[in-house]
Structures are given as C-alpha cells and as structure tokens.
Amino acid sequence: MESKTSRSPSPEFSPLAIGTDLAPPRELKSAATTDLDFSGLLADAIQLHEDLKSGNGGQAWPAGNQWSFKLQASGFRLQASGFQHEGRGENLELGAGGGLVGLGVASGCDITQPVYVTDQVNMLPLMEKNVALNKLGSKVQPAVLNWGEPLGSDVINFKPDVILAADCVYFEPAFPLLLATLSDLLALCPSATIYFCFKKRRRADMQFLKKAQKAFQTVELVDQDREVFSRENIFLYSFRSKTREGKSAS
Ligand SMILES: C[S@@+](CC[C@H](N)C(=O)[O-])C[C@H]1O[C@@H](n2cnc3c(N)ncnc32)[C@H](O)[C@@H]1O
C-alpha cells in the first residue's frame, strides 16, 4: 500500500492515507495472521489477523500492543494509583481495530460478561474474524459504536463499567466525538472507569488530554512499566466521572 508522508496536523481521514507520523512504527505489512503469546506469557497464543484494507485500525497500534502486553504481563491484576483491573464487570472497548485488547481481556481475565469490542462498521468484519479465529464467540461481542453518536440500545442495556481505549487519540477532528462518547458512557454508568492508553505523537494529543482533564477525574497510572511506556511516548490514564461520588450505577 502507498505510505504517504503528510505531516499535516489534521490529515485527511482515510484508512489508506496514513502519514508516517500516524502509522504504527512497525513496517506496514500485508494482510496476515500472527500468533501473539506476549513473549511466552500466554499459554494459548492469541491469533490476530491484521489487514489495513479494513481501515487504519486493521493493524495493531503501539498503545494497543503495549496495553495488551501490560494486561498479560500483570496477570490482569494491575495495581497502580488505585488502578485495579480484574476484568470483572462489563467491559467495552472503543476504537478496537482488530480487537487485540478486548481479545486479550477475554482470554486472560476471569470475565463474567462478554467483552464488547467496538469500532466503525468497516472494522466489524475484522473484529468478527479475530473473534472466530480465537473461538471467543461466547466471550467477545463485536459491535459498531461510532463516537459522537447517541449510544445504541445494546450499549445502554449492557451499561459498561470498564471502558478500554487504546490509541484512539490520533485524528484531531475526531477528538470532540470521542470526548462526547466518553462523557455519554460515564453519564450512563457514573461508577465506570475508562482506561485510556494513548501514544503522544503531536502537541494536539495533549490538548485532548487537557480537555479530558477538564471533563473527568483523571489519574495517570504510573507503575514499574512507566519507563517502558515513556520510551515510546505512551501514557496510561484512568478517567472517571467528576460526579460519581454518591451516585449509584444502578
Ligand atoms: C489508531 S486505531 C487503534 C486501534 C486499536 N485500538 C489499537 O490500539 O491497535 C484507532 C481506531 O479508532 C477507530 N475510530 C476512528 N474514528 C472513530 C469513530 N468516529 N468512531 C468509532 N471508532 C473510530 C478506527 O477505526 C480505528 O480502529
């Protein structure tokens, strides 16, 4: 595929117009299926099919890779600054791409409900393919969730209390849409926690964080892996509702 080198701060949004500053650092590869055992951490490797024809989430991005690795490495019991993800609850992933993070949660966590992996409609076939490849149909539910649009009745009924997002900060015009969806999800379930992992590529990415800090209670999750994340300019935050105190999720 053509690899353009536009460095415009607001590139044209097209799955095939990925500038080098927006693309994953690895070589852009042809469609392929890879076994990921996270350096031997997983006894049963996750099979991830990647295909950029589906969209720019068709190949796992750096924050998705790191976040997934961290989840596996910690045995899904991360503890830092009050952060504890054990997978219990209703998990929903935003901008899931091929679904790497959600698949990791489903295969490594003791989940009680299927994980919703969501993205735009063009990514649905790839998410479905990866769920089928890993025989995780009973544990992972792919669905369409367009940022900025009202939440669908499936999400409203599911009422997620753990929201995962990896590398969803990369396209400035989508920032308000993403913020609106994050707000809607926290309004739907005021006790929910959003785990937000992103790679800083441009100054605008920190503008997104500033807006999130205004809208939500934000905590940077710092632990022994901080150095590894820092080397790649990857940040991990939790976002919570500012009005969650005293409110019930029921
Ligand atoms: C950079 S990719 C990250 C994919 C995956 N989370 C990872 O870390 O590998 C961002 C994802 O956000 C999705 N996305 C972009 N704009 C969106 C929107 N308006 N609504 C829903 N998803 C969107 C893209 O389709 C893409 O899969």
TrEMBL record:
| Span list, region Disordered | 1-21
Indicate the transmembrane segments per the record: 174-198
Q: What is this protein called?
A: Protein-lysine N-methyltransferase EFM6
Answer whether the UniProt record assigns the keyword NADP to this protein. no
Which keywords are on file for this protein? Cytoplasm, Membrane, Methyltransferase, S-adenosyl-L-methionine, Transferase, Transmembrane, Transmembrane helix
Q: Where is the composition biased (Polar residues)?
A: 1-11
Coiled-coil zones: none
Provide any one GO MF term from the record: methyltransferase activity
Task: Specify the superkingdom.
Answer: Eukaryota
Q: Which gene encodes it?
A: EFM6
User: Primary place of residence?
Assistant: cytoplasm
